[in-house]
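Objective 1b: paired records.
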Amino acid sequence: MVRWTSPATADLKKIFAYIAEDSKYYARQVVKNIVEKTETLNDFPEIGRTVPELNEKNIRELMIYSYRLVYEVKGGDAEIIAIIHGKRDFPKAYGQ
């Protein structure tokens, strides 16, 4: 099962708002594609690579567009922790 944390949901809303400044259509498409990508985690929770900065085997990421979808594998479930732009410093941005 895929669960979204409050910070990850807020990240998704910020991404939508940012893209929607230029195009609500593309904002919806990007958000839709991000959410669809997370659905693969239901069957393959360890599909993503380990986050290099953290080096913890249960914290993984998928690249979607220019975003890093960071999640934690807990048992057979995936908990979405954050969605950050690839150029941002994940540990610095999220207090790791």
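Objective 1b, second protein:
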Amino acid sequence: MGNAGEKLLRLMDIMKRLREPGGCPWDREQTMKSLRPFIVEEAYELIEAIDSGDSRVVAEECGDLLLQVVFISRIAEEEGLFDLGEVIDTLVEKLVRRHPHVFGDVSVEDSEAVRKNWEQIKKEERRDKKLDQSILSGVPKSLPALVRAFQIQERAAKVGFDWPAGDISPLLEKIDEELKELAEARKTGNPDEILEEVGDLLFATVNLARHLGVDAEFSLQETNKKFTRRFEFIEKTVETGSRDWSEYSLEELENLWQRAKTRS
């Protein structure tokens, strides 16, 4: 496989060349902010590759995500902010600092103890850096909404602000309550109220999923995949038939949907 360090230096040299005069016009135009959507996209493509189980695709997508880190580091170096070496140094220091049970003299019994130590160390780091000390601080605002809702609820639960474990009936009642409030908002016709109540309903649903041990984000992703498979069956059926979409009644499309359900 060769020396990873040498290959990283080669990657850095390529990135530098792309950003230099005479390099790639597109690469030279990019900024940290312009790269944000690509970072998100590459992260999700890596997740999809992992789900596929194809190690070659996983390796390729790891490279694409690594490129974003190298890209940002190069831009920062040009602006005199930091370079890739500092990024690596910061990561190494953080890993050592947050694993005192490996690199220090702290003893832990299990992964739960490791998690608690990790959170305590993070809290101390934020205090030392004079950052926001709120329990909910550190949950990135740019996270997908379902993921952020889950993390917010997890943070609140750590200090006891949570529904009792093992009984989901209050959570189901909460969802019913939010549905009723949404129905009332619809009666008023106020779009701001409807928006708010839909958000409350989704938040309550994420909480239910969390108590059931289900990752709401991935659960919805699986449902998206399932819907796509079934809808594609309907598409193929319509395309191979003699009629256009507009000639199908809703009842006929529903019948096709039921057929699709039996197939996947």
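The mean pLDDT is 92. The two ends are 41 Å apart (CA to CA).
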